[in-house]
Amino acid sequence: MNQITNNTNCQHEKEFMKLEKNSRTKNYTYEDIHSLNKNYNDKNKCISNKDQEIWKVYNDKCKNNHDVYIHSSLKLEKVCHNIKAYNQQIIDLKLGYNTIIDNDLSFNKDLLKDSHSVNSNLKEYYVDKWSKMKKEIRKKFTTTNMSDQHIIDLCSKDLNLPTCFHKYNNKDIYALLKSWRQHVTALKSTQRYLGFRICTLIQHINYSDLLNDDQVKIQYSKFVQDNCLFAKNNIGNTQTNTLKKYSELNKIEIKDCYDHVTKKLKINRHLGLTLREDQVIYLLSIFFKKIVHLILPQLLNLKIWLEQQCLYSFCSTSLLIIYDKNKPSLCDIKWIDFTYSLQQDSNLKHYPLNNTKLNMDIVSGLNNLIKLCRTIFFTNIIPPLVKNDTKRKKEELIL
C-alpha cells in the first residue's frame, strides 16, 4: 500500500514540477475577468461552465451628480450546483494586501502625498467613521444603487477630514477611504504577513478531532517560521509598529470557531480578522487535506499566469473553494471579486513600473498556500493526528 501511495505521489510531483517550469500557461482556467470584459455590454448574459454553475454579468448602472457611473458587481447565481448545501465544505480566502492606491498607477499624486501624511491611528478613526456613515445611508435608502450613489457623494467635509483633502472630488475621496479601509484590514489580520486571510470557513469536523489552541501554537508557529511564511513584503518601521500593536490585541481561540450544534467550524469575516497566523495555517491544513491534489495545480496555474501577465492589476480578489464532505473529488475552485481590478495597458505607457511587477502581493500569498499544500501532500507533518485523551473528551462534554 505504501509503495502504491509513493508511486502516486511521485507522479503528482512530476506534474506539479511541469506546471512550475512552464513559461506559458495554456488553457488557463481563470477566465472570469476576461468573461466579464467580453460580455460587459451584454446585460444579464449567462456564462455556463459545464452546467455546474451560472454566472451573470449585471450591467445595470446609475449616474450620480458628478457623472460617476456605478456598476453592479458580478453575481454568482449557482455555486457548485452538484453539491448539496448540507454537504458543502466552503472557504473564502481574501488574497493579497495591496490597496486601490497601491495598484492605480495614475492615482492623483498630490492626494497620495496627503494620504501619507495621515498616521495609521487617524486612518483607522476615519475608516470607522466612514463605515458608520455608510451603514446609516444603507438603512435610509433601500435600493443598492441609490445607497451606493449617496455613499460616493460623501465629501471630505462630511467626514471632517483635514483641510488638505477638501480640494479633492468625491470620487477621489471614496477611493482614498476604500484604500485606507483595505490597508487597516490588512494590518489587523493575517493579510500583511501571510498574503491572505480567511473571510469565510465552513468545515464539518468532530470537536474531538481538533487541536486545542496551545497545541496549534506549538506545532504551527514552528511551521510558519521554518517555512518563512512571514515574508517581509517591504514592511517599513511604521507598519512594523502598527502590526505589533494589532498582534498584541486579544485573539480568539480555535474553540471559539466551533458550533457544537451543527458540529462545524464556522468562521465569518469578523472572526477571520481576529485569527493568528498559526491558527489560519492550521485551519487551512485540515480544510485542504482531502483536496490538496486537486487545488495545488490550480494554485500553480494562477501563480504562473499572474507572474507572466502585465495587463491587469488586482486588488481585494478572493479564492472560493467548495467541495463535498462525502465526495471530495466534487471540488470547485474559483478566483472571484474583480470590483477593484484595473487594466494597466494605457497607464504603463505614462507610468512605467521600473522593473517592478504587478500583483506581487497576491503571488506572495499564493506562494505560501503552495508551500502549505506541498507539505500536506508530500509529508505527514501537518495536519498532525489528534490524540483523543481523557482530558480532551471531558472538555467536549462540558462544552
From TrEMBL:
InterPro entries: IPK, IPK_sf
Keyword terms: ATP-binding, Kinase, Nucleotide-binding, Transferase
Catalyses which reaction(s): 1D-myo-inositol 1,4,5-trisphosphate + 2 ATP = 1D-myo-inositol 1,3,4,5,6-pentakisphosphate + 2 ADP + 2 H(+); 1D-myo-inositol 1,3,4,6-tetrakisphosphate + ATP = 1D-myo-inositol 1,3,4,5,6-pentakisphosphate + ADP + H(+)
Recorded GO CC terms: cytoplasm; nucleus
The protein's Enzyme Commission number: 2.7.-.-
SUPFAM superfamilies from the UniProt entry: SAICAR synthase-like
Pfam families associated with the record: IPK
Main EC class the enzyme belongs to: transferase
Gene Ontology BP annotations: inositol phosphate biosynthetic process
The UniProt record lists the keyword Nucleotide-binding: yes
One term of GO molecular function: inositol-1,3,4,6-tetrakisphosphate 5-kinase activity
Family of the protein in this entry: Belongs to the inositol phosphokinase (IPK) family.
Protein name: Kinase
Lineage of source species: Eukaryota, Sar, Alveolata, Apicomplexa, Aconoidasida
